[in-house]
Amino acid sequence: MGRYVYMLVKALRLYLELDVLNEEMHFLEEHQAQHVQQLMRKPLKEQAKKSWLQRRVYEWDPHFRFPSRMIGTAVLALICLYIFVVTEFYIYQYVSRELKILEVNFEVLVASSNESEVLTSTVLHVKEFIDVMQGVWIFTTFAASLTSISYVFHILACYRKHMKRLWAGQKRFLPLESCQPSSSQSVAAIARYSGWQIAYLLWGYLIIHVVQCLFVTMIVYGFVLPIKHGHGLKMLKDLGIGILTAGIVIGLMMVQVVIAANFFLQPKISPEDKQKPLALNNRKAFHNFSYFLFFYNVVLGLGACLVRLFCSVILGAWLIARIDRTIMQKGYEVADLGFSTWVGMIFMDHYHTNPTLVCFCHILLTTERQQKRSNKYYCFSNPTEPRVSNRARTRWLLLYTLLNNSGLAALRKPKAESGSKDATQSYFA
Fold first, then answer.
1. For 258, phi and psi rounded to 5 degrees?
2. What is the mean pLDDT of residues 94-117?
3. pTM of this structure
4. Phi and psi for 387 in degrees, rounded to 5?
5. What distance in Å separates the CA atoms of residue 340 and residue 338, rounded to the nearest whole number?
6. Residue 264 in contact with residue 286, Cβ under 8 Å?
7. What are the tens digits of pLDDT across the range 383-408?
């Protein structure tokens, strides 16, 4: 009840314009005014040297403040991530107890099966797999948690970077289809951003955890267990064959590039050019070169296609929690609903928190309120101020601007005046 009375009294005071000064003070934030002042200053010729942390990780900006929505989303995301990890750990403990019971049952089965070698070997492999998965799961839990936590702070850094680019009028970092989201989409996006960001982060943690678990398991079975069982030399031999095969493939690809640069391109037009022009030379030799390497390139393309698929799966799984960047191919970014939500949200914030626009609106409202408060005899309170018509002042400012910026004179379209008027007067009219 007390809270309601307080809100009612405050609304009445605002309606009666008793708290106008307080409202004016809070309309333009201090950091926004400082940001605009910084834009008006002349940039320094010599920039201060930045530390490694500022260049590689994060650089503090005293003139930027994150909105409460972003801070609240980050805090809630960390809390939900903590609850999710703890719940997953309890499930892991329950599954571990069940696997221990399964191991005991296997041992009893082996003891009562007249010592069958096949069954004994199978049971040993199962026990080894259970031990490996338990260790891998614990290790990847920490790795996936650290990755997800770093994503939370990285998203905040990307938010600041994207907002500054939009304030500067730069939209090239966005896909063409997303540069002008509709107003309704932006409003809906900012309403659902917090919930979607937390949901994407939780799904991303789970997917990253599973992917990391699979990769670490492959590493353990490919390198650790062979060395543990005394098969290290065989493992090194197989590894050497694989590295040699990959080296030959990569080497042949590099040889093709070197041959193309030295024999099938015309020389540089100017010695200062960084590379040769894209103009073929020795065309007959180039056709023979393409023919003899055709079948090799088919086999190489099969492997390159698998590498492309592998990299796409890894990057897609690794970046699924980050909705500040799309994981779709170019031209299909609109199908990424998470990225569309991010774009709509930053555009909504851009239109409502742009320091330059807010400062301009603050000046307009302040001037309007000052004019309303002044009496009708305001002109008599400033007898020293010269009376100049608006038309004369505008012409003088136009002339002064054109004299100091000669390049604008060529871009200005003169008015079509009668022949009796002076050309100069017509030009500056």
1. -65, -45
2. 79
3. 0.75
4. -90, 110
5. 5
6. yes
7. 555 566 788 888 888 888 888 887 77
